């Protein structure tokens, strides 16, 4: 059965600023890796039909091994739709030998103006069964917290 995981957060930045951070290579490399990981983008093509390849490295792989190797998750992400400033739809495929991580997961980043900020809702559909639901939702929430911190720091640097 297909699974859906979701998380949302209000970020103190307008939708156009948040949208730009979803399509900027340096920004994505900085904020997307959840707590306990670092990321490196190996390829970048921010257009519909384009995408990126990201190597995520677990800072401590004990108890949470990677999908691609003991310490890494490699993911190919395609941009299925870019809807400025309303959101981005991505299709993510993990490199993994374990069939529990096989398949294409759709990540929808929906942006909605709220007051002086933006509510960012991330909905992951067709999540591979090998990804623990609680860990995945915590990871999405962590990436959203990183995005908020990244944009708020950029606003302070202004």
Task: Offer a concise description of the structure.
The protein is globular, with a radius of gyration of 15 Å. The protein has helices spanning about 15-20, 25-30, 135-155, and strands at about 5-10, 35-45, 50-60, 70-85, 85-95, 105-115, 115-125. About 25% of the residues lie in helices and about 40% in strands.
Structural features:
single chain; 158 residues; alpha+beta; Alpha-D-Glucose-1,6-Bisphosphate, Chain A, domain 4; 7 strands; 41% strand; globular
Write up this protein:
By secondary structure, this protein is an alpha+beta fold. The chain has a domain at 4-36 and 83-157: 2-Layer Sandwich (Alpha-D-Glucose-1,6-Bisphosphate, Chain A, domain 4), CATH 3.30.530. Helices cover 25% and strands 41% of the residues. The chain has 3 helices and 7 strands. The protein has helices at residues 15-22, 25-31, 133-157; strands at residues 4-11, 37-45, 51-58, 72-83, 87-95, 105-114, 117-125. It has a 7-stranded antiparallel β-sheet. The protein is globular. The N and C termini lie far apart (46 Å). The mean pLDDT is 92.
């Amino acid at each position: 059965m297909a699974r859906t995981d979701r998380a949302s957060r209000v970020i103190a930045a307008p939708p156009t600023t948040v949208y730009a951070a979803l399509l900027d290579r340096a920004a994505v490399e900085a904020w997307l890796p959840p707590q306990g990981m670092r990321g490196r983008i190996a390829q970048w093509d921010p257009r519909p039909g384009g995408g990126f390849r990201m190597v995520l490295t677990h800072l401590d792989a004990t108890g949470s091994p990677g999908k691609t190797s003991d310490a890494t998750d490699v993911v190919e992400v395609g941009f299925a739709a870019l809807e400025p400033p309303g959101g981005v739809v991505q299709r993510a495929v993990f490199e993994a030998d374990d069939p529990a991580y096989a398949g294409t997961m759709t990540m929808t980043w929906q942006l909605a103006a709220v007051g002086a900020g933006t509510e960012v809702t991330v909905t992951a559909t067709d999540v591979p069964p090998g990804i623990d639901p609680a860990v995945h939702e915590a990871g999405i929430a962590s990436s959203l917290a990183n995005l908020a911190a990244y944009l708020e720091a950029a606003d302070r640097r202004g």
